[in-house]
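Can't paste images in this forum, so I'm doing it all in text. The chain is below; anyone willing to post the predicted structure tokens underneath?
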Amino acid sequence: MGVEVVVEGLTKRFGSQTVWSDVSLTLPAGEISVMLGPSGTGKSVFLKTLIGLLKPDAGHVWIEGVDIAKCSRQDLYEIRKLFGVLFQDGAMFGSMNLYDNVAFPLREHTRKSESEIRQIVLERMELVGLTGAENKLPGEISGGMRKRAGLARALVLDPEILLIDEPDSGLDPVRTTYINQLFIDLNAQIDATFLIVTHDINTARTVPDNIGLLYHRHLAMFGPREMLLTSKEPVVAQFLNAQRVGPIGMSEEKDADQLASEEGIAMPPLPPLPLQIEPSSGIPRRGQRESGAWCRENGVVPPAGSFPERAYAMSLH
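Text version of the structure:
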């Protein structure tokens, strides 16, 4: 079962450069959250700070009563056992076959026998669709297969928190669709707390229970998926709908002249909200909400075509 991650006032700098400051949010236990942001806004830095690979300059990260920003090395070592991490490129050992790559954490951190390790490794490889590829080297397989192998390795220690860094980078739209469904099915099965860093807007609109957006050295917004997808806050609306009009430019923030040139140009209307991907099993996940539930609870009328409008209107009464 996943655990809650509470971030309070987190600030990270490299020298005189502030990456982001005063970031506060809560990753709900067992739910899928996505972190978005223009390139260079420190999304990967945020993941590394959550797991203690980087120390923040201020703030706290609370996990099961332990502040990993301030705790001892021994406490950090124990807390890290709750995590599984999928890095951007899979981070496979090139000289090891996939079986040994996936088995590595079990051999390094447990006292399990080789027969126990074999059972776990084969189960996880089957889970990510890599049965039969155990003896292949990372250089012999596609980028998508390396990502799935990295995911299998992240799962072998039964993590309660899964951090996933740009799983869609280098993947075509079809493979991205498959891996998105895999995340939903995994969350339904293992009930871990997921945080996915991505640039893929379709992933952000259809996979998570919660969305966050880092922009201009701060957290612009974090909350339930429907809250951000219906937001008219310029940065959020521009990014989540991949629009040119808005405060984000080629160099992150548009200058005054660029913004002035857009005066009088209305931002395009928000598109319909897509349905969230459901588990293949048909059994709802813990964090899954009924489509339109957040909108109804908060009196927000979603863009036309988002849900069966008649059913939505009736539910308001």
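The chain has a mean pLDDT of 88. Residues 95-157 form one domain.
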